[in-house]
Structure formats: structure tokens, C-alpha cells
Specification:
Blueprint: E1 8-12, E2 24-30, E3 34-36, E4 39-41, H1 42-49, E5 51-53, E6 63-68, E7 74-85, E8 109-112, E9 116-125, E10 135-138, H2 139-144
Parallel strand pairs: 1-9, 2-6
Antiparallel strand pairs: 2-10, 3-4, 5-8, 6-7, 7-8, 7-9
């Protein structure tokens, strides 16, 4: 069994993120905190591993955001991406990653910088089209968004 990552979780307003330069951001979707059949999903995965799995990314984003689906329905978390790796080839703490039903060969693992995750004081609430999969935006749009409709 892999050791648990020491995730540092901070609560900050989005205005705090202005200290970072604008860049490409990926916003992934999640279910609320969940542990299913001994595997961590949703918020639990993020908070345990300071990572997100397993999108099949075509671009190389600088930042990460996590949208939590019903009943939360808002973007709750932010992180700076340290690296994006193939979980079959890189070092990481995700236990039995091949056992996750969402994992497919070629999918990536997004590793966040310095084991730092920011839980937003001012979450971005859902409005507009459903958020079904990961999508790209910019950090500036993320900071200024009044709802998810403003992200894209």
C-alpha cells in the first residue's frame, strides 16, 4: 500500500490567484467525496494524492480546477500543475491505478505542485450547460467568472 501524500489544503478567494500569471487551465469534473470498493474517487482522490486522474489530455495546461457535480454543482478547487505523467511510467502514489474503471491506457495523471490545493472561498457556481468532461479555459477567465457559464 502506498503512503498517503501530505496534501496542504488552503482556503482562499479567487482574487488570491492573481499572483499567478495567466495561462491555460483545465477544469475537470468530479463527484463529491467518495470511497468505493477501496478506491478513492472524486474529491477524496484529489485530497489523498494531490493529483487528478485520468483525463486523456491533448494540451499541456498550467493550472487545474475541479468542478464538483450534484449536489454541490460548483468549481471548488484550484491547483498549479507540476507535471502530467503517464501513470504506467511515472512515479506517483496512486494505488492500483489500473483497477480504476475510468483508467484507459494512454490516460494521464495530473500532479499538482508542492502538494498544494486551494479550496475556493468563492466557488464558481453552475450556470448554463452541464459540465460533463474536462474543458480548457484561462486563469484570467477563471478568476473573473461569476458562474461556470463565464468559463468557456
Amino acid at each position: 500500500m502506498a503512503a498517503q501524500n501530505k496534501v496542504r489544503l488552503y482556503r482562499k478567494p479567487r482574487k488570491y490567484l492573481e499572483k499567478y500569471s495567466d495561462g491555460l487551465m483545465v477544469i475537470c469534473t468530479s463527484i463529491p467525496v467518495t470511497l468505493i470498493e477501496g478506491k478513492y474517487y472524486g474529491e477524496q482522490f484529489l485530497l489523498r494524492y494531490s493529483a487528478w486522474g485520468f483525463p486523456n489530455l491533448a494540451r499541456d495546461p498550467d493550472y487545474f480546477g475541479l468542478y464538483i457535480s450534484y449536489p454541490i454543482q460548483s468549481v471548488r478547487y484550484f491547483g498549479v500543475i507540476d507535471k502530467i505523467i503517464d501513470p504506467a511510467e511515472g512515479e506517483h502514489l496512486v494505488e492500483n491505478f489500473r483497477d480504476y474503471d475510468i483508467y484507459e491506457k494512454g490516460d494521464k495523471l495530473i500532479m499538482l505542485e508542492n502538494d498544494l490545493i486551494i479550496e475556493l472561498d468563492d466557488e464558481i457556481p453552475f450556470k448554463g450547460n452541464r459540465v460533463l468532461n474536462f474543458r480548457y479555459t484561462s486563469l484570467d477567465r477563471f478568476i473573473d467568472a461569476e458562474s461556470t457559464k463565464d468559463l468557456w
